[in-house]
Design goal:
CATH architecture of the largest domain: 2-Layer Sandwich
Number of domains: 2
Structural class: alpha+beta
CATH class of the largest domain: Alpha Beta
Radius of gyration: 18 Å
Order of helices and strands: EHEEHHEEEEHHHHEEEEE
Number of helices: 7
Strand order of the largest sheet: 1-2-3-7-6-5-4
Bound molecules: biotin
CATH topology of the largest domain: BirA Bifunctional Protein, domain 2
Shape: globular
Length: 258
C-alpha cells in the first residue's frame, strides 16, 4: 500500500484528514479506540496492511491477510446511542454503493452489517460505541474489505463457499488506495446525511440492496434460533421476522437464508 496515495486528491471535509498508517496491528478498531480515548478528532482513520487480531461481530476473528483493506474511523456524532446503532447501515450502504458504482458489481446488503456479492461475504463491518447513558462519547466504524487476494489461497479453503474478494470477482487486482478514498468520500457524505436527516433515507437506500427481504431466513442469537419470513428492517434498525405464530422484532443476530 502506498501511504502517500491514501490522501492524494481525497475530497472530504474531515474523514481521512488524519491517518494513522500501520504495516501491521492487532486490530485497527482497538487502536482507534485508544486514540479516541486521547481525544483524537472526528474523522481520524487507522488503517493497516494486515491485522494479527482482527475482530468480527459476536467475538469472531476477522482473518486479515495482506491485500485486504482494513480501517477504522473515529466518529463523535451528536446523536443518541439508539440512533448511533444505525451507523452500521451508513457503512454498509457506503460500501455497497462504491462497489456498485466503481466496479459495476451487483452488491447485496445483509442484516445487520454485511455486504455480499452473489450471497458471499466481501466486506464486514464492526461498529462499536462508547456511551455515557444515552450520550455517545465516540463511535468507531471498522471496515474490512476482501480486496486483492484469492479467498482460497489467502483465507481458508472452507470459506470459499461463504466468502469472496474483489480479486476473485473481477479477475484482477484493484488499486486499494483508490478504493479507500472513494469509500471515505461516500462514508462522509452518508454520515452527514444521517446527522442532518436521520436514518430514514439511509435505511430506505440500504433496503434496496437487501436481497434477504421477502425471503425465508434463520436468525441465530446465542443458543436461540428464529426462522420465518424476513419482512422488513424497522426504523430502529431491527429485523422484523414473520413467524407462523406471529411477528418478532430482532435487534441482533446472525442471519442465513434457508
Ligand atoms: C464481521 O463481519 O463480523 C465484522 C468484521 C469487521 C472487520 C474489520 S477489519 C477493520 C476493523 N478492525 C477489526 O478488528 N475489525 C474491523
Amino acid at each position: 500500500m502506498n501511504v502517500n496515495m491514501l490522501q492524494e486528491g481525497l475530497r472530504t471535509k474531515q474523514f481521512g484528514k488524519r491517518i494513522v498508517f500501520l504495516h501491521e496491528v492487532g486490530s485497527t478498531n482497538d487502536c482507534a479506540k485508544e486514540l479516541a480515548g486521547y481525544d483524537a478528532e472526528e474523522g481520524t482513520v487507522v488503517i493497516a496492511e494486515t491485522q494479527t487480531a482482527g475482530r468480527g461481530r459476536l467475538g469472531r476473528e476477522w482473518i486479515s491477510p495482506k491485500g485486504g483493506l482494513y480501517f477504522s474511523v473515529i466518529l463523535r456524532p451528536k446523536i443518541s446511542a439508539s440512533e448511533a446503532v444505525k451507523l452500521v447501515f451508513v457503512a454498509g450502504l457506503a460500501v455497497a454503493k462504491v462497489l456498485n458504482e466503481v466496479y459495476e458489481l451487483k452488491v447485496e446488503t445483509k442484516w445487520p452489517n454485511d455486504v455480499l456479492i452473489k450471497g458471499k461475504k466481501i466486506c464486514g463491518i464492526l461498529a462499536e460505541t462508547n456511551t455515557i447513558s444515552e450520550k455517545v462519547n465516540y463511535a468507531i466504524i471498522g471496515v474490512g474489505v476482501n480486496a486483492n487476494f484469492n479467498v482460497e489461497k489467502a483465507l481458508l479453503k472452507e470459506l470459499v463457499k461463504t466468502a469472496t474478494s474483489l480479486e476473485d470477482e473481477l479477475g484482477k487486482k484493484i488499486r486499494v488506495e483508490e478504493l479507500f478514498k472513494t469509500l471515505m468520500e461516500k462514508l462522509e457524505t452518508l454520515y452527514f446525511l444521517l446527522l442532518k436527516e436521520g436514518s430514514a433515507p439511509i435505511l430506505s437506500e440500504w433496503k434496496k440492496h437487501a436481497d434477504f427481504l421477502g425471503k425465508r431466513v434463520e436468525v441465530t442469537i446465542g443458543d436461540k434460533k428464529f426462522s420465518g419470513m424476513a419482512v422488513d428492517v424497522g426504523v430502529d434498525g431491527s429485523l422484523i421476522l414473520k413467524q407462523e405464530n406471529g411477528s418478532v422484532k430482532l435487534v441482533s443476530g446472525d442471519l442465513v437464508l434457508i
